[in-house]
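Notes from the 1:1 (GR / supervisor)

We went over the backlog. Supervisor wanted to see one worked example end to end before approving the batch request, so GR pasted a single chain during the call. The sequence is below; no edits were made to it. Supervisor asked that the structure be written out right there so they could see what the output format looks like.
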Amino acid sequence: MQPPPTAVRPVTEVLHGTTIVDHYRWLEDGSSEETLAWTDKQNAYTRSVLGSLPQRPWFLRRLELAFAHTTLGSPQVRGDLLFFLRRLPGQNQAQLILRNLQTGSERVVLDPNAADAEGLVALDWWFLSAGGRYLAYGYSRDGDEWSTLHVLDLEQGMHLPEKIARARYSSVAWKKDGLGFYYTRYPYPGEVPAGEENYHNRVRYHVLGTDPATDPVVFGEGRPMREMRQVQVSDDGRYLLITCYEGWRRSELFLRSEEAAGAPWVAVAEGLDALSHGEMVGDALYLLTNYRAPTYRLVAVDPLRPGTEEWKELIPASDRILESFAVVGGKLVVTAMQDASSRLFLHQMDGTLTGEVPLPELGTSYRVQGESGGLVGFFTFTSFSRPPSIYCLEVATGRVVPETMGETSGDGETFVVRQVFYSSRDGTRVPMFILHPAGLVPDGCRPTVLTGYGGFNIARTPEFRAAVLPWLQAGGVYAIANLRGGSEYGEDWHRAGMLQNKQNVFDDFLAAADYLVEAGYTCPQRLGIAGGSNGGLLVGAALTQRPGGFRAVACGVPLLDMIRYHRFLIGALWIPEYGSPDDPEQFQWLHAYSPYHRVVRGEAYPAVLLHTAAADSRVDPMHARKMAALLQAASWPGRPVLLRLESQAGHGAGKPVTRVIQEQADVWSFLAWQLGVEV
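Structure output shown during the call:
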């Protein structure tokens, strides 16, 4: 069976002296009847192929078992009340749970599953008032992440009338008295010039019981429209702190006293080419910063003397990457990363090291949550074999005890995790995790899937991956490369994989593939690659730069046209990471690796599955549509190029588990088919 034909309508333009011919620009319009009809035909073709694969029923059943586990996370504590997320087997979405730490009693605070029978409503974020009476939270539908802010009175068990739309990725900070809150939202249509509605994030203030339409703008007017903002109120309610982010490498902080009307803003870290995160404790601002410290350091800042020359260093930079800190019970609880896995430390408030907190195993620990006057903190921990679980840390002793544990279905064979290090093209030492069935002896051509991310200061650390378990049970190998562009080794590592250095990320990934072949795990004919979002760009670059290096590619919610990415949805937010095609110099490096512009007709490309979603509000599905059409026209017979475009779904956050299982069944059966896995 052949894919549906696609009309070729060349659009030619000259950009910075380079002639660009785009044969499928008409597919950028996702709302046109022609594009919708074309997409329906592509989906039908993909279903006819994937639905006939003998591997799919086996992977579907195994995935259903793998996802039948309990997942926990995001603990928050208010006195004797612990709030956390929990998804039980059979649930599409996690519920928000309240547990009384004295009595052990629990109740469900929010249940998105009850809001939609198909699980299409997701809890995006939630923020508690200081006393734990009020909860501000965001629900969105169909994966579009455009949250509506709601307020729940936990004491009365009823919702307040407040409903605030356009609260995507909102940051909320309650006033100490609980009578109002600061929050961020994006503009309503008509508030800003047409086409800019995805930007102009502003901080506003809302008093409970008033009309949100009258909420005043507190911060953001006159600032760059692409800034992202986070808002905090100090534990004692005396300070308001706003952090402004320019991409993923710079931030500025602005502090204001809440004790006097009209108090001036105090700028901290203003104009620095550095990333800083802060928290007010008493009269001091504690700042985790990479200013003059690529692996981060912790400093104390006096708001009356905020200049960098006045900063007091508490914890200096080291070979560990400082990731987060919390003030709990008069101690600094610091989460760090070393060689892409977590470590946890206790310090006195002056920075003196008290000791290291033992973690259960090689894995990932998230920021400890607690109260500055409390005795315990809570944190989420996960590993390749352990679903996310919540632990309690006694800060006085450093003792860690399980609070509530994630549970697996029990259906799974043991597997082995190895961490290796390999050399990239320029000699850089890069780590990689390799997961494989216990007892595996490398035979030179084992079915293997390699993945990575390499961007936006995001590290790929050990975490439970239910979707990978069936692949391991089928005898496959799974590898995760810790590429430059992430945060694994601090800001230098991040910057070595962004802007003009982006090719380093692709070189690291190709070198990881070389290692897997040279170490005897696999061969090119049985090597597949997979990635999503920025990782979709990664595998798109890999398949166009080394088409003979892989047999199959699963490319999810990808960026692929790097000459036009900034014109769609929130793409312009990523200019600090990728560069701007409107800049002549930056255009050159973007065009050099843009996967859509590197496809050559007649090349023996691998089999490709492009999977995306209609409601993706981050990466426009046009990337996948155009690339599918181009590869279908260019590829050899027998190397299928499939497009899977899902309706009522977005970039991935909040997708119901039943739909995740169906998508992953398609992905893994496609990879198994192409890599010769029989089950």
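Supervisor's comment: The longest helix spans residues 657-675.
Batch request approved.
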